Amino acid sequence: MTDGWDWRQPGASGVPAGQPVPGAPPASSPAREGGPPGASPWWSDALTDPWRDPNALAAVVLPAAPIVGAEPEQVTDPDAPGRPRLHQMLLVPLLAALLAGTLGGALGYAFAIRGGADGPVLGAAPGTAPTLAQRPPESLAGVAERVLPSVVTVRVAGVGGTSEGSGFIVSTDGHVITNDHVVAGGSGKASVVFNDGSTDSATVVGQDPESDLAVIKVSRTGLRPVEFGDSDALAVGDPVLAFGSPLSLANTVTSGIVSALDRTMQAGEPGGPTRYYAAIQTDAAVNHGNSGGPLVDAAGRVIGVNSTIKSLVADGQEAGNIGLAFAIPINQAKRVTQEIIGTGKARRTVIGAQVGGPGANTSGAGVRLAAVEPAGPAAGAGLRAGDVILRLDGRPMTEPTDLIALVRKYAPGSVVTVEYRRGSDRQNASVTLAADAK
């Protein structure tokens, strides 16, 4: 469809130039404005109009009929928006995210300033952290708080240098228990570092090398002594805490359990005394410097004196904790301490017999008596040389050390049951232990 004019170049209609087009008005009839209708174009200067093709017909041109089966021509609007590109597609969500983040941060800040009164409250209201005074007395922290003021670091100067260990206060007038091997080789003078960091000089009151116990005394009074427990009432698995100054780290507390009871052993330095232990075994971490410190139960009562450890290192190398530590039972340590304070020395408990080595027969292991002292405790109970001690108060004997260490654990005058074998007969005897005449 057009506006009624079909402008063509001359000759485009197929009529030779200069020839009249059929149906067109005669070219020889020039028309003037106001002439009769149909005689000439309706404006006078039509022949000179550059926008008028004098050869064009005033006709309506219809589009050609569509061809059956042909695809219609795609028509696009040049003013219509084109397909969005990738960067345009990403730009919109990016801007939305930035706006959302900015808005969220602003709202969060506003809620934080105002306390979030209009939003959900997560978690319980913050409380005050408990102080030591608020912790239960039976808790580990409660026990440590009570015991630490009674634990000290002991330093003794000797020929080979300064020996350092631990100790604990047992009387208000300044008596301190420690190990004999801590003060051995010293000049009899020592210094003590208290829990609060203050120091005081101390003197050695007395020592018992074989039980590895010693007592020193400071001049300070009004001290807080420890509370004693009952080492005979312990059971394997009971919780314990070890206190002391391992590797010069004062006020150290470690925890563990009772791993074994009456673990017998002997120890000693070359040229020094042989020490015998019927010890409490624990897996609480104990290292060099813990010697002489207290081992306490869950109620904060001292039930042992940390004394020695087992290690896998070779001789001459520095040993460290591997979870095998041993403490002198406090019942034995308390008795020895009282004797040292009272008389300056401790009595040694004996059975009145000598052991010559492990004795074994078809019934199992035992300790053979090499000799029995006349009028001694063993002889008074009817024991003879050659008898094999199988058990002492129910504890099996396998090595000579077992019999010596367990006898030393008891106080003189204690009555123990001895199961022994003579020949093929198994018998029992009650033996009243005595103190060594020395």
Core attributes:
alpha+beta; Thrombin, subunit H; PDZ; disordered N terminus; 6-stranded antiparallel barrel; serine-type endopeptidase activity; 6 helices; Peptidase_S1C
> Largest sheet, order of strands side by side?
1-2-3-6-5-4
What is the averaged pLDDT score?
A: 81
**Gyration radius over CA:** 56 Å
What is CATH's topology name of the domain at 231-343? Answer: Thrombin, subunit H
How many DSSP H or I helices? 6
Gross CATH architecture of the domain at 231-343: Beta Barrel
H and E string: HHEEEHEEEEEEEEEHEEEHEEHEEE
- Estimated helix fraction: 10-25%
Number of strands: 20
CATH class of the domain at 231-343: Mainly Beta
Q: pLDDT below 50 for ≥5 consecutive residues: which ranges?
A: 1-18, 26-39
Q: Class by helix and strand content?
A: alpha+beta
Shape verdict: elongated
Cα-to-Cα separation, first versus last residue: 144 Å
Kindly estimate the percentage of residues that lie in beta strands according to DSSP.
Answer: 25-35%
| Fourth-level CATH superfamily of the domain at 231-343 | Trypsin-like serine proteases
Task: Describe the largest sheet.
Answer: 6 strands, antiparallel, barrel
Organism: Micromonospora craniellae
Region (Disordered): 1-48
Domain PDZ: 340-422
Biased composition (Low complexity): 10-21
